[in-house]
Fold:
Amino acid sequence: MNYVAIIGGGLFGALSGSALAGTAVLGKVLGAEMRRQHYNKEFQIGPIVSGGTLAMIIPPSLIVVVLGSQATISISKLLLGGLVPGVCLILGYSIWNVIRTASRPEFSPIESVEMSAAQRIKAILLMLPFALIVFLVTGIIWIGVATPSESAAMGCLGLLILSWSYKRKFDWFALQQAIKQSIGVTGLVMMIIMSASGFSRLLAFSGATPGFVNFMATWSESQLTILIFSQLAVLFLGMWLDSIAIIILIAPLLAPLIETAGIDPVWFGMITMTNLLLGGKSPPFGLCLFVLKGVNPELTIAEIYRAVIPYLIVDGLVIVAIIVFPKVFLLLPYMFD
Structure:
């Protein structure tokens, strides 16, 4: 079930776009089932937290939208750019689980479930409509048919049609609740963007932004040095603050800096997103760790800290791979340019 948590987290992230929601759902549903099957706590915690945080980078991600809007980076390219690192993270987490299971098989008991061929086909067919929703939200951006805003509207329309086709009737109360929640989230995001816009203008008018850019430019002209120090700052903040708060703080400063240094903004955004994912589950105050603790109160925070360490190493290796092989990771975002 640890593989279900990792892959399911990626799929849920493609539908929800929220790391906290993904961690909460996986922790509530899979956590109880893993305890019933007597999984070791390490195998409960690590895959669930790592699978939940994949929503930060798997499109459509709220973090991508905020980062793109605040750092003036193409949101469609960032959405596409999150796919390859996301797949690499899923593979990395899965490989670690294979290694750990091989060394300690008693940590991950296998409960066999008999399924006929007809049942397998039915299960696959039940997943196809959700794959259609993912395509409507992200796929039509790839092929150049719609903008991110238009693809979001298409996703909503697809969900309405899908919900009606399952029940053969329209649930107006559920629609009203969805609209209310959407208005609340949209208003929150717009307030964040407005506040961040005012903050960035304040920095520009006060001279802080050009002063910071000039200081970094005179201190080092190396793109790699600037990249490393900026990402270390993101990682440090990620251990203490929410991802959106970090973007509001750093985007007004780093956006002019990467432009002056000649760093590809999409590449920088991909590294930053992966780094925020790492920070979201890093001790001592990674928010996803406390979300899991909230839905699984029997776990201790020390157990959660220990369980996520191998997955943090996988995140770090993926960040290094993005830095070392930029052309590989930028191939997809610029393929549909």
Q: What stands out?
A: The radius of gyration is 21 Å. The chain has a mean pLDDT of 80. The chain has one domain: 2-115+174-335. The CA atoms of residues 115 and 267 lie 44 Å apart.
